[in-house]
Amino acid sequence: MMSVETEIRFKLNGREVALMVPVTMNTLSMLRDKLGMTGTKYACGEGECGACTIRIDGKTVNSCLMYAVDCDGRELVTIEGLRTPEGLHPVQQAFVDHGAVQCGFCMPGMIMQADYLVENNPNLTREEAQRGLEGNLCRCTGYTKVLDAVEAVVEAKKCCGRC
Amino acid sequence: MENNLTAAPIVKKTLIGQRVRKPDAPEKATGKTRYINDMVLPQMLIGKVLFAGRAHARIIRIDTSAAEKLPGVYAVLTGKDAAGLKFGFVRDNVALKDQVRCEHDEIAAVAAETEEIARRALLLIEVEYEDLPGVFTPEAGALVGAPLVHQNFPGNKSLSFEFKHGDLAAAEALSDYVVDNVFRPHHVTHCCMGTSCAIADFDHNGKLTIWTQTQYPYNYKMDLAPALGISPGDIRVIQPPVGGAFGSKLDVYPYEPIAALLAKKTGRPVKVIYSREEEFKAAPTRQAAIIHMRTGCTRDGTLTFRSADVLLDNGAYTSWGPTIPVIMMRTTSGHYRVPVVDFKAQAIYTNNPYAGSFRGYGNVQTTYATAQQMDMLADLVDIEPLEFHLKNAQKSGEVTPQKSFLRECVLAECLETAAKASDYSRKRKEYAALRDLPGRYKKGIGLASSIHNAGGAKIHKSDGIGTILKVDDFARVTVITGASEIGQGIDAVITLIVAEELGVPLEHVTIVNNDSDIAPWDVGVHASRTTFIAGNGTRRAARKAKEQILNAAAKMLDEPAGTLELRGGSVVRDNCGTPLIELDRLLRRMHFQAEPELVMVSDYYEPKSEPEGAKHISDHSAAYSHAVHIAEITVDTLTGEIKVDKVTVAQDVGRVINRMGLEGQIEGGIAIGLGYALSENMRIEKGMLTNPCFRDYKLITAPEMPPLDLHFIESNCAEGPYGAKGVSELPTIVIAPAIANALYNATGVRIFNPPMSPEAVARAIDETRQAGGRRESE
Smaller CB count within 10 Å for chain A: N or C? Predict the structure, then answer.
């Protein structure tokens, strides 16, 4: 009665992973239920809230909308993979410093998306950040401090290595 | 001096009003925080609930035999397993039903090894229903001969409230102007990003441990016990981190006793967790109502009376929703100086979803009416709304008809500050002059204010909090407090206060506040009370510890009593800051001396407020506060879309404690209020929710969040911690009518049935133009 399972291999936060997954399972469930990577959150399961945002081959996706089998041969980064051995990733640090975290449930997805935005646009404006984070719902913060944090990261990056 | 400290003085630096990071933010930002939704216990089963999916029906037959036989299923429960276990505000609810009264009524529940098995088991349960005629509006429910939702509530009457003050007929006779409108605030829901979840487990003595999202752990035990037929003393409540609450976790909802009943039946821990669709359907709503409000004033703009006749859509069961008149009437009687008040409210059972408490608790709905009527009256009197507001604004020391004592009242200062910062009066005139000229896009500016309790609300017998504080041999402080953390940031406030009082680094403070077997009594996170109440409790406990430490230090160091202070991790002379001994060394010496002492203190703080009482004439909060919002908007008169360009806020916060957390509360509160004002709407057709998803139920997103100009007015509340007042509900309360008044300024239309959606606004503009024979939109 169980779904057909198949073996997939991929890179998760820099480490090789091989496991059997049901062909009907989505990537979010694989991360949370199979691999115990609970940093990535379920909040709607239909791609409307962004809480399950992860990176696949550099692009951000709603992991609830992607079959786990489609991860085969690809490279995944989750919120757990953002942290560096030295400590918090600059985007994570900015979110902490600017008070962008309240209940924090949407934050893993929000931070993954924010990191993608600042990485791909060194001159990201506040308006562009608002657009870029439109798919990430937050019920606590009103986004203001999230945008403050993103702006601070952009500014810090501009400065880096030149002054 | 007998220590190795350099004698460099340690200057006093206050943390009050500074920006302090939330202690749990790094864990949350890295995905390490284990929310209840993430928790897995050994041997844990997954519980799923079968919802009725119809609004009103009799259950003719229910057959669970096929579900019970499915491999991996451990228990299937139905209404008979919860028979007689009534719970709820008026004991009208039960965890599993034998009759259907609303769409999300819980008919059966399954515990299985996996969620997939549990889901398949639900599909195997056969239920035969006989649908019954239902009632879907409070007007319909109140009709003679209407179908009854509960046989033991004749006339479908649930709770009712009344407050009268002064001679209404005389006040009406005195009034040169009266505005008379019916407002219909709608159903919205909390949309916590973490869906509802509970994990239950019984030990061999029959003691229940429940991991749950509750924001009121102690009364929760009282409320959960009857749903299970056990003693409240046999319930241990553990509160893991939650993905939002906003008032939605201020009651027991059926999934919690269902998890416990399944755990009891199976002898294993059982987790019930909702999908988003289930969350939309089964989580509580904000109370929908029909508010018939009238307000009068004299020719010179002095308010004469306010009356409100309120009909509440109780929904199928009575949670906190229909209790909101307690606050509705405080606004009706206390929003500006109202000499005569006539308030009554009746809640009527319907077959709709039922409401719980939601940030703003009745005041969101009421202020939508009162603040628009203030604007309408100013228009009739033909004076500046700002002047009209100022003329009727209370001052410090005034008492409202319900005996709310406005000890420190800075409403006038809030009004003037916001008006000046936004250039309100000039813009309002300018936009009004442009209103009837050609042009698709119209600008508007609107002012609204409100009053709310800001020092708790004594609606229970107690509004107090217990605090235990210990300082260990390494000068690390642990605060064991009843105050729950639901994301609002009381953790940062407590940490800041301890560091302020004991002169220790913020990182050296640990908070234990999530286990009812450990932490002492608290009433819960509600009524904008936690910074006020828990802040006081923490400060009192910290000061007790400080007194003990400084007394010991004075004795040990042979310094005069009352001359020492704690600063920078040391004991210092207060006047010059000269360090005398490191705090941790002192604590070890206190501990290991001939007459040893540990620093561990306790405190119980009960605010000076009066119980609400059946007559509702009491000073029920230890403080009251006002906020003024001025919204600037652009209206697309063709599509009806409102873009909020800017919001200026002036709020009486008493005193800023953690500036960053305070800003976050105001910003987030406004976001919820914006959704209420503009887009959020549970579309319920004959009791069935038709938009249970974020695609069709539209929350405010990042691009829609306007720039905010925040002004904190510090009234220095004598009873508040360092002068602080509670802050978190007013932002949600005031924004919608500010936008409504801006919409009027821009277009001359008012929306009495929120939300002010594009459809509603476009329709209202068209109707006004047709009625007035004005030009078509371009």
Answer: C
